[in-house]
Amino acid sequence: MGRKWNNIKEKKASKDANTSRIYAKFGLEIYVAARKGEPDPEANRALKVVLERAKTYNVPKAIIDRAIDKAKGSSDEIYEELRYEGFGPNGSMVIVDALTNNVNRTASSVRAAFSKNGGNMGVSGSVAYMFDATAVIGVEGKTIDEVMELMIEADVDVRDIVEEEDNVLVYAEPDQFYAVQEAFKNAGVTEFTVAELTMLAQNYVTLSDGQAQFDKMIDALEDLEDVQQVYHNVDDEE
């Protein structure tokens, strides 16, 4: 089921020579989550998820605090959560999640990123049905058997537990995100290599001639200011 999450994160970090771009995206996501409810992660589940994800990307505390303080203040900035679906070269499938204060700008930019790189946007639902919303939690220093025992003892329902390199990854329903983390924390685990709510493709495809063009399209989408996450079904593991 899994993909090499640490490798993906390392590639993303190395590709983003300016990590301030990652931090800016998290700052916006934290602000929007904090505006949805209480600006307190203990009382706002959506905010808590974002903060847990931010930890695995080493987002500085100053950026987190600034975003939460902004949400506490009088800012009246309103952002919409949007999802775009589309197709890349050779039938590859892509989901783009965005936060924007200008829907027309974002739609135009996403459409251009697709069309200029051999892809095209689809209608809502044209791609998402081939992906599963999934919580992924990763830890080091545990075996699969140890993690399985922890989940059973905590009565946590998981989809799969796999070992990838030096990590054990737990795949579960999105609403089990906290339950999985709490099971680990109760066992003394406080650091997570992966903590994501993501969209995993049900089946992955391998591109040949279209890989370079596909990579260019994904880069163009991820470079857009309003885009928060890009998911796809292309197996780009080396």
UniProtKB/TrEMBL annotation:
Q: Does the keyword Cytoplasm apply?
A: yes
Q: Where in the cell is it found?
A: Cytoplasm
- Molecular function GO labels: DNA binding
Give UniProt keywords alphabetically: Cytoplasm, DNA-binding, Transcription, Transcription regulation
Write one Pfam family the protein is assigned to.
Answer: Transcrip_reg
Q: Which domain of life is it from?
A: Bacteria
Where in this chain does the record put each TACO1/YebC-like N-terminal domain? 3-73
- Name the Gene3D superfamilies for this protein: 1.10.10.200, 3.30.70.980
Record GO biological process: regulation of DNA-templated transcription
Q: Does the keyword Cell cycle apply?
A: no
Cellular component terms (Gene Ontology)? cytosol
InterPro entries found in the cross-reference section: Integrase-like_N, TACO1_YebC-like_2nd/3rd_dom, TACO1_YebC_N, Transcrip_reg_TACO1-like, Transcrip_reg_TACO1-like_dom3, Transcrip_reg_TACO1_YeeN, YebC-like
Ranges for domain TACO1/YebC-like second and third come to: 79-234
> What does the sequence similarity comment in the record state about its family?
Belongs to the TACO1 family. YeeN subfamily.
Query: Which HAMAP family does the entry mention?
Result: Transcrip_reg_TACO1, Transcrip_reg_TACO1_YeeN
Its protein name is: Probable transcriptional regulatory protein E0485_05230
Species of the source: Paenibacillus albiflavus
Q: What is the lineage of its organism?
A: Bacteria, Bacillati, Bacillota, Bacilli, Bacillales
